[in-house]
Request: fold
Amino acid sequence: MVISETYFREELSALLDRAWELRQRNFSPEITFAVPGGRKYDTVVFTNRQERFLNVSITDKTCSLLCDHCRGRMLAGMTPVTDPRQLLALVERLMGKGARGLLISGGCDREGSVPLDNFIPAIADITATGLKVIVHTGLVARDQAKRLKDAGVDQVLFDIIGDEDTIRQVYHLDKVPEDYYRCLESLLEVGLDVAPHIVIGLHYGKIRGEHAVLREIAQIGVDRLVLVALRNLSGTPMAGLRPVDRREVARIAAVARLICPETYISFGCARPFGKEKIVLEQHLIDAGINALAYPEEETLTYVQKRGLVFKFEEQCCSMV
Reply:
């Protein structure tokens, strides 16, 4: 589908109104709030349980890329396992506590891939138990994608970057956007459930390539799409940047709804904190998203004012 350039110049309020109307036509009046165990969520309405859905890093805190927006800091909040036996032992303990599933991720190698190969047999053992398994892959070859499919993986998370300078300067990879598009197509062709992710503001807080990714995703066609926004993490080269403009985040969410009218769109846990977070979440609701991770309490009230019914799910927003 062709994206009109007017979408990126149109008055935001008008754009949000059209996105909201489209959401009302194509979806039930329900929104899901995802609160997996990777972060504590405790409000008067709902409290999550860490053991229900864990984030696991198969590389501990190690990452060969050390991308400028993360430098491996996102791995610090995950449960570390360094070999398949540890992973299986962890899963056995989790099942005894009522776990529903886990996200398997980790740092990338120098080619931009999470080193999953040695873990795929263990992943097959885990999926055989009935636990849901989501895998964050990075770039993968078709044969590895097929092995993940054969292992029974429930879903693959895959970040897509639409700007070559961002790939080189932020991710430190000698790749181009077409490498990411081809990988997405390979994952889909082998029959995997794929939830592509777009990091809004990844290029040092600027919008560079997000529009191109939306165009490509609309052309390829996906059932699910996850949006997140750059979070300026301490200890990284982006720590001192101004947060990405919430209006630009909302604009991209609204455009995503307009060009992917039947796609289930989630907004994930990565987004800036601060006083504008509540306003951003309200804009995202207006933009017609279907799911939101870790909402503020004020957002619960707002969705009700908009006529939506909410429910909580203790798993990743891509799966709810």
In short: The domain at 5-313 is CATH 3.20.20.70 (TIM Barrel). The mean pLDDT is 94. Residues 12-26 form the longest helix (15 residues).
